[in-house]
TrEMBL record:
Name this polypeptide is given: Threonine synthase
Membership in a protein family: Belongs to the threonine synthase family.
Keywords for the protein's UniProt record, in alphabetical order: Amino-acid biosynthesis, Lyase, Pyridoxal phosphate, Threonine biosynthesis
EC number from the UniProt entry: 4.2.3.1
Stored PANTHER family: THREONINE SYNTHASE FAMILY MEMBER, THREONINE SYNTHASE-LIKE 2
Pfam families, A to Z: PALP, THR4_C, Thr_synth_N
SUPFAM superfamilies linked to this entry: Tryptophan synthase beta subunit-like PLP-dependent enzymes
Superkingdom in the source lineage: Bacteria
Domain Threonine synthase N-terminal per the UniProt entry, residue ranges: 2-80
Domain spans labelled Tryptophan synthase beta chain-like PALP: 90-329
Gene3D superfamilies named in the record: 3.40.50.1100, Threonine synthase, N-terminal domain
Pathway: Amino-acid biosynthesis; L-threonine biosynthesis; L-threonine from L-aspartate: step 5/5
Necessary cofactors: pyridoxal 5'-phosphate
Length: 465
């Protein structure tokens, strides 16, 4: 399996190189050259298998023999042994045809752990094989950062630098990033918003001397390895609900478009998915784009679902590439428009292709609080604000007789203030995080300027080529 850039001007790479590259050298995102497929018979054979077994079956075509099967199996087993639920991502029924897929049983209580625990092991393995080290940078609106720090802490082949927007993440999220005692971890509070952090990360990748000088790698969902690992739970869920002999719909709380793009990949691989529904908060750029065909940035609004306070939705580029039948020149044009004027138009044919695959809806702050309250009253189930967005939008997109699964992307205890205000319940952190709020914090505050961040990374990274 080879990987190509969405902008068509970077070298085509194999799995391990695409994994270590993070962002392609032309600023694009890597995607597989073709989608591997599983037959209905092969999908049916996944029924009753463990999460780990399904992961191996679904992910092997992407790795394509670049890592020996036994080594890859061990990585999968170790990654998912960190989860506190035997099913890894359990499914909870909340209505006759409504389900919540709990993706928050990992160490940092968000869906990011699912991919990050595997990604860290894959990267470590590749670096060890090659006798190399890497400098990892990541931007976070709250959850990616904690998950990445947890997964990479103490690994001596990597130094990790996580950029988070100062004052714009929840106190629990902040402490998951700032209380690590590992010397290879650097939490950086950036005076800006998530989009500023993400732009800085992309600019570091586009600065070739810097990129090569510190052997830069990335762990955001711009890295194909992140998307790939998230494809697995669409398969485990669908087969648990009667797939592939029945179509399942999914609603996904969406920000950077990584999680829902993984659903699209599952569909491309042959999983019968009915509706794929994008659920946004007040930062509804994706819902507006699907309606109007114009991707147009607006000022970011702070909401009770801070992890989704995003305007530049990185993985939408992967979808554009698909919708334009993989014509990279059209993607380059759109991305140049975005850079220049903060907007681009999607051609009619491509928009139609996108609308055939996706629906979208938005939840206001009032909807979020109302959903947390009503779901608790009706079912006894406590949602976090991000998952509540999904449940609110899912309800408007359900089809009678057809299962609708909402991805529950975070544990309510990560956002106690919003959850308490909506439900009256103060959700407790699990025992392993019980002392989180009294642990000592360690982080640096930086201006959102490329040179300042690069200087910091250069001074602290233990690699210099
Ligand atoms: C809790 C939570 N829900 C949803 C999202 C959105 O996921 P994606 O960026 O993959 O669209 C994020 C962050 O991205 C998140 O942290
Ligand atoms: N919501 C994310 C934003 C970054 O998304 P990623 O999936 O591209 O890493 C976060 O919590 O940091």
């Amino acid at each position: 399996m080879k990987y190509v850039s969405t902008r068509g001007e970077a070298p085509t790479l194999g799995f391990c190189d695409a994994l270590m590259a993070g962002l392609a050298r032309d600023g694009g995102l890597y995607v597989p050259k073709h989608w591997p497929t599983l037959t209905k018979k092969e999908i049916r054979a996944l029924r009753g298998k463990s999460y780990q077994e399904v992961a191996f079956a679904v992910l092997t075509p992407f790795v394509d023999g670049e890592i020996a099967d036994d080594k890859f199996r061990t990585m999968i087993d170790e990654a998912y042994a960190t989860f506190r639920h035997p099913a890894v991502t359990p499914l909870v029924q909340t209505g006759p045809n409504s389900f919540v897929l709990e993706l928050f049983h990992g160490t940092t209580l968000a869906f990011k752990d699912v991919a990050m625990q595997l990604l860290a092991r894959l990267m470590d393995y590749v670096l060890a094989e090659r006798g190399e080290r890497a400098t990892i940078v990541g931007a976070t609106s709250g959850d990616t950062g904690g998950a990445a720090i947890d997964a990479f802490a103490g690994r001596d082949r990597t130094d990790i630098f996580i950029l988070f927007p100062e004052g714009k993440v929840s106190p629990v999220q902040q402490r998951q990033m700032t209380t690590s005692t590992a010397s290879n971890v650097h939490a950086l509070a950036i005076k800006g918003n998530f989009d500023d952090c993400q732009n800085l990360v992309k600019e570091m990748f586009n600065d070739t001397p810097f990129r090569d000088g510190v052997a830069l790698s990335g762990v955001n969902s711009i890295n194909w390895g992140r998307i790939m690992a998230q494809v697995v739970y669409y398969f485990t869920t669908a087969v648990a609900l009667g797939g592939p002999d029945r179509k399942i719909s999914f609603t996904v709380p969406t920000g950077n478009f990584g999680d829902i793009f993984a659903g699209y990949v599952a569909k491309k691989m042959g999983l019968p998915i009915d509706r794929l529904v994008v659920a946004t908060n007040d930062n509804d750029i994706l819902a507006r784009t699907l309606k109007t065909g114009r991707y147009e940035m607006r000022a970011v609004k702070a909401t009770t679902s801070p992890s989704m306070d995003i305007q530049i939705s990185s993985n939408f580029e992967r979808l554009l590439f698909e919708a334009y039948d993989r014509d990279a020149s059209k993607v380059r044009l759109a991305m140049a428009g975005l850079k220049q004027s903060g907007a681009f138009e999607i051609e009619e044919k491509a928009l139609k292709a996108i609308k055939r695959e996706f629906r979208a809806g938005r939840a206001t702050e009032k909807d979020v609080a109302g959903t947390i309250k009503s779901v608790l009253a009706e079912t006894g189930y406590l949602l976090d604000p991000h998952s509540a967005i999904g449940v609110h939008v899912a309800a408007k997109n359900e089809k009678p007789g057809s299962p609708m699964v909402t991805l529950a992307t975070a544990h309510p205890a990560k956002f106690p203030a919003a959850v308490k205000s909506a439900s009256g319940i103060d959700p407790a952190l699990p025992t392993w995080l019980a002392d989180l709020m009294v642990r000592e914090e360690r982080f640096d505050i930086l201006e959102p300027e490329l040179k300042i961040v690069e200087t910091f990374v250069n001074e602290h990274a233990r690699i210099r080529n």
